[in-house]
Write a structure and sequence with these properties.
With 371 residues, the chain is an alpha/beta fold. The protein has 2 domains: 7-65; 69-370, Aldolase class I (TIM Barrel, Alpha-Beta Barrel). The chain has helices at residues 14-23, 30-38, 54-60, 142-158, 179-190, 208-215, 232-238, 247-261, 279-292, 314-322, 345-356; strands spanning 7-8, 64-65, 69-77, 82-89, 94-102, 111-115, 119-121, 136-139, 166-169, 200-204, 222-226, 266-271, 295-300, 329-331, 368-370. The strands form 3 sheets. Strands 14-13-12-11-10-9-6-5-4-3-15 form an 11-stranded mixed sheet, with helices on one face. Strands 1-2 form a two-stranded parallel ribbon. The protein starts with 6 loop residues before the first strand and ends with a strand. The structure holds iron/sulfur cluster (SF4).
Length: 371
């Protein structure tokens, strides 16, 4: 990576780049070439931009950072359709990014979705979440979020997959606690990166004032609420933020968001065996979804190493889903469950393995490869 004081290519303004080029005597058309190359998944560094003279890219490298993330490790799951990246940031912190390819099926077109992290760790502290156990170290910068999408696009491209069609803010961290980062990165992804806001989903555990603010930004991405419990009593325990912003205010904010943006609200439900899989919770969830005209996404929980939390048995899952009368429900496949997917788990697993080895090298027993 280039120097710390350099500015990030992905979030640099046109004016800043034009000034940089002009200072080196480059003609104005170089700006468009630089901009185009920023989003090409086969370009891995300034020196790989064939249209630019080598002398110019070398000079630009003094103050322009091609990417703010460096892929420290990659792993594959689902026969190579899911690629998980461990991204190292300039200060040595690491975050996770996941790219998922969904082949075309019936009427549905193929899609490539990238799941980005917005924070290193998370302060919300949901007890079932691997990231929550870390606490919050810091928020990502807008460039670190955008560069995760670029790194994932490259990883897909190398496997002859992609291009990226969808982005979900569902990785490590609470995107609306990193509000400025989330909004600035959304503006780049929906602007220069050319991804439609309709294909971007921001997932929140319930920062109510920030939901209202986001509704008024004019971006128009989809909002997903990580609900996980349909009564305050249970949600206070599962998502501690609920003690500050209880369910009624959260569902109201989500409903207003949907009305302001015209985007249908999603309610995410991580189905945890023996915790939120009862018929009473299913009934209460269906009632909330009907009121908010929301779609429900049920995600049977992945196992977390050294954790009592896990998915319910199949019969309980079927009974729970049967209780969601009169609402649209999708059951999401837990992509990557065969290695270490889910929020924070790839990173936690790699750190654990690193701790196990005296020399700190990554030599995982399963399909994780240091790069
Ligand atoms: S589930 Fe989301 S909000 Fe809760 S601790 Fe994990 S990353 Fe934070």
């Amino acid at each position: 990576m280039e120097t710390m004081s350099a500015i990030a290519l992905s979030t640099a303004s046109d004016d800043a780049l034009a000034a940089m080029l002009a200072a080196r005597g480059a003609p104005a058309f170089r700006l468009a070439q630089l901009r185009r190359a920023t989003w090409q998944p086969f370009v891995g560094g300034l020196g790989e931009i064939r249209q630019l003279p080598a002398g110019l890219t070398a000079a630009l490298g003094q103050e322009l950072l091609f990417s703010t993330v460096e892929v420290a490790a990659e792993s594959e799951a689902d026969q190579g359709l899911t690629v998980k990246l461990l991204c190292r940031l300039a200060d040595g912190q690491t975050i996770e990014t996941v790219a998922m390819e969904t082949p075309a099926r019936g009427e549905a077109r193929r899609r490539s979705t990238v799941c980005v992290s917005t924070q290193v760790g998370c302060a919300v502290g949901c007890p079932f979440c691997a990231t929550g156990r870390m606490g919050l170290r810091r928020s990502c910068t807008p460039a670190e979020v955008v560069d995760q999408v670029r790194a994932a696009a490259s990883a897909l491209h190398r496997r002859r997959l992609g291009p990226v069609t969808h982005v979900v803010y569902m990785g490590m961290g609470e995107p609306l606690a990193a509000y400025a980062t989330t909004v600035a990165s959304l503006r780049v992804l929906t602007g220069p990166a050319g991804i439609s806001a309709r294909r971007i989903t921001v997932s929140t555990s319930g920062v109510v004032p920030a939901i209202h603010r986001l509704a008024d930004e004019g971006i128009g991405c989809t909002l997903a609420i990580s609900l996980h419990a349909a009564t305050d009593e249970l949600r206070d325990r599962l998502v501690p933020l609920n003690r500050v912003h209880p369910l009624a205010s959260l569902v109201d904010a989500g409903t207003r968001y949907a009305a302001r943006t015209g985007r249908r609200l999603s309610l995410e439900w991580c189905l945890i065996g023996g915790v939120n899989d009862s018929p009473e919770q299913a009934r209460a969830l269906a009632e909330l979804a009907r009121r908010a005209r929301a779609h429900i996404n049920v995600i049977p929980m992945n196992h977390i190493e050294d954790s009592p939390w896990g998915p319910p048995d199949r019969r309980t899952e079927v009974a729970f889903l049967g209780g969601l009368d009169g609402v649209t429900v999708t059951v999401r496949d837990t992509r990557g469950a065969d290695t270490d997917a889910a929020c924070g788990q790839l990173r936690a697993a790699l750190e654990q393995r690193r701790m196990l080895r005296p020399d700190g090298t990554l030599s995982p027993p399963r399909a994780v490869a240091a790069v």
